[in-house]
Design a protein that fits this description.
By secondary structure, the protein is α+β, with helices and mostly antiparallel strands. The chain has one domain. It has five helices and four strands; from the N terminus they run αββαβαβαα. The longest helix is centred in the N-terminal third of the chain and has 9 residues. The termini are close together.
Length: 89
Amino acid sequence: MVEALRSTTFDGQPVLDVSVVADRREAEAALREYKDVLMLLIPSDFSRVLQEVRDGRVEEPITLQLVGDPALDSYVFANSFVPSVVDEL
């Protein structure tokens, strides 16, 4: 998923600067300090569940959570790309 998000383009230009952090507090601090505008919370079992969905063993949707300030134009812009990338996985 990270590579799919990193390769997302608009008018031929990359639009998402994706960082991977293991510490949620670090990511929340980056949001508060406006260093980042959107945090995508990916469950630890995401890859396994995604494979089970693809194999037809699980029909439940995978829940991802987007966190950020929807009042920021940059959040709205970034958020407009994430769902379509996730849907293509």
